[in-house]
Amino acid sequence: MYVVATFHHSKNIEMAIADIENIGLENNKILVLPLDKQNDQTKIFDTIYDSNGQSYVDVAAILGMVFMLLGAIYGFVLNWGPVLWALIGLVFGIILGFLIRFFYNKSKKHENMAVDSRSEIVVIFHCEEYQEEKVTDILWGHVALGVATYKNS
């Protein structure tokens, strides 16, 4: 029988393993695997297949539209006309939107880096059926993120 648990990287893993070894599970029947973190880079364009919700295009499109509208409206009283001022407003709004989103994502990344820097650890125990309840109780007692059991036939 296998008992699988996930933990955040902390001292709770070592305490849980020590407690489980104390109930009679040998060291060679314990497997500890740290998971690699994905390097999350913000993409400029989201697709329908891959979206992380942090695209630069949303704010740029909205500000481009707003400044294009303002350029077209005020272009009737300015020298170069409404079409040229609408294009100038569009370019200005898009650049401003990209810059706002870039600096917002950059500041958010530094705030969330401390919280998300912890990786998860998967611990797999190969134990007998009579040890399953004790092992799962110990794992839940040491703040496991999740626990699953698998009975091989």
TrEMBL record:
SUPFAM superfamilies: ABC transporter transmembrane region
Main location per the UniProt record: membrane
Subcellular location: Cell membrane
Annotated Gene3D superfamilies: ABC transporter type 1, transmembrane domain
UniProt superkingdom: Bacteria
Residue ranges crossing the lipid bilayer per the database entry: 56-77, 83-104
Alphabetical list of InterPro entries matching this protein: ABC1_TM_sf
Membrane-related topology note: Multi-pass membrane protein
UniProt KW keywords: Membrane, Transmembrane, Transmembrane helix
Protein name listed in UniProt: Uncharacterized protein
Upper classification of the organism: Bacteria, Bacillati, Bacillota, Bacilli, Bacillales
